[in-house]
C-alpha cells in the first residue's frame, strides 16, 4: 500500500472529497511550515501568523469542492494564503524601502543563495524585502524563498507569466537603487 507521503496533493483532495476527511491532516502537514514562512515574509506580523494560517486551512477545506483537479494544488493553496495575507495587510500597508547590496541583481536563485550564505546578509536581505511594495515583494518571496517557478507564481498571483519576470526584475532594481541611496547618505 502506498504511503500518504507518496500520494499527490490532487489525489489526496480526491480522496478527501470522496469522504475520507481525516486525510486533510496530510495536506496540513505538507504545507504548514511552507505557508507559515510565506505568510510571515509577506505580512511581517509574527503575532498573527498562526491565526492567519488557521484561516488559510479552514478556507482551503471549505473550498476543496471548488478546486479544479486539473490544476496544481500547491498554487491554489498559496493563492488562498496570498489572499488572506493581503486582507490582513489591507490598506494600512506602509510602503518603505531599505537597502541591499549591489549583488542582488544577479539572475538565478542559486547565485543569490551562494552570495547570501552570511547570516548578516540574509537578515539584511529579509529586512529589505519586507519593506518593498507588495507587488514586488510577493514575486521575490515566492521565487527566492519558496522556490516557485514563474508559472506557479503566475497561478498564485493571477498575473501573466511574462509579468512575473518583469516584477522580479524591477523588484531587484528597486532594492539595488535603495541600497545605493542609503549607502550614499
UniProtKB/TrEMBL annotation:
One of its GO terms (biological process) is DNA-templated transcription initiation. Residues 124-174 form the RNA polymerase sigma factor 70 region 4 type domain. SUPFAM superfamilies: Sigma2 domain of RNA polymerase sigma factors (SSF88946), Sigma3 and sigma4 domains of RNA polymerase sigma factors (SSF88659). It holds the Pfam family Sigma70_r2. Residues 27-89 form the RNA polymerase sigma-70 region domain. PROSITE patterns: SIGMA70_ECF. Coiled coil: none annotated. One of its GO terms (molecular function) is DNA binding. Keywords: DNA-binding, Sigma factor, Transcription, Transcription regulation. NCBIfam families: sigma70-ECF. Belongs to the sigma-70 factor family. ECF subfamily. This is RNA polymerase sigma factor. It comes from Candidatus Roizmanbacteria bacterium CG2_30_33_16. The lineage of its organism: Bacteria, Candidatus Roizmaniibacteriota.
